[in-house]
Amino acid sequence: MSDETLWDYPADEPVERHGEFTLTVVRPPFPGPEGVLEAHDEAGARSFAEAFGTVDRVLDGQGTIPVTELIEVDTRADLDVIRVGCWGGVIQINDPALISLSESFPIEEQAEALADRYPDAVIVAAAGMDLPGADYGTWKIVHPGGARIFAAGFAGEENWDVAGEVTAILAAFGITPEQAAAAGVNSAHAPRSFAWDALAGLALKAVSPTDRRGLMASVFRVRRTEDAVVSMEDTWFDQ
To answer: In sequence order, which residues have a C-beta less than 8 Å from that of residue 128 and are 6 or more positions away?
Structure first.
């Protein structure tokens, strides 16, 4: 079966929405906020891409680019492109399949799968989509000591999916009240107005440098799993 047969939309079909979607795995020994990351490992990046849950197989590698370079998602074909940076014990994937407006939560599913694969790792994932009226976001943070939090919902709206406690994440990562307050993280805030991106940033910064300038990453075109295609068609195109 060719990769085209899984999609109901042609490769040049324009996407209707735009978003950001990043998942980072940090394995011990954690480099910490002042650490120096290793040079990009292209073979390691390909291996990670091939095993990632939204990917059936890697079709081809498209070279390396600075990890800070924006990858535009303009057409259906762009939804089959992922970027993976592999810098020693830190791996970062940018994958549009991590966000879903259907009933599934791929960011939760993929983070939990990676937690099983790397039980000693910190996993921090965040994805968001710009939508008319209310932006949608979803986050997942995993600490190897057991603390977890998941959140997904529309900014300003009441009905959110949340599992886990903010206070447990702050404690697990050693984030002080002063650091939390400086970032605008207040555990008393309701999910609809909570600073989820800031919490994810604090967790990641506690175990790894977050300045990615000067680092490279590999770009791959992939064949999607059937589940990923169904979810992405519901998410990226007006039905």
So the answer is: 19, 20, 21, 99, 135, 136, 137, 138, 197
> How does DSSP assign the chain, residue by residue?
--GGGG-SS-TTPBPS-EEEEEEEEEPSSP--TT--PPPP-HHHHHHHHHH-TTEEEEEEEEEEEETTSPPP--BGGGGGEEEEEEETTEEEEE-GGG--SSS--HHHHHHHHHHHH-TT-EEEEEEEEE-SSS-EEEEEEE-TTS-EEEEEEETT-S--EEEE-HHHHHHHTT--HHHHHHTT--TTS-GGG--HHHHHHHHHHHHS----TT-EEEEEEEEEPHHHHHHHHHHHS--
For residues 64-73, average pLDDT: 93
* Region class of 229: left (phi > 0), else alpha (psi between -120 and 50), else beta: alpha
Radius of gyration of the chain (CA): 17
Q: Kindly report, residue by residue over 204-222, the tens digit of the pLDDT.
A: 999 999 999 999 999 999 9
Which residues, 6+ apart, have CB-to-CB distance to 199 below 8 Å?
A: 139, 141, 149, 166, 169, 183, 185
Comparing 11-20, 152-161, 230-239, which segment has the lowest mean pLDDT?
Answer: 230-239
Average pLDDT of span 141-164: 96
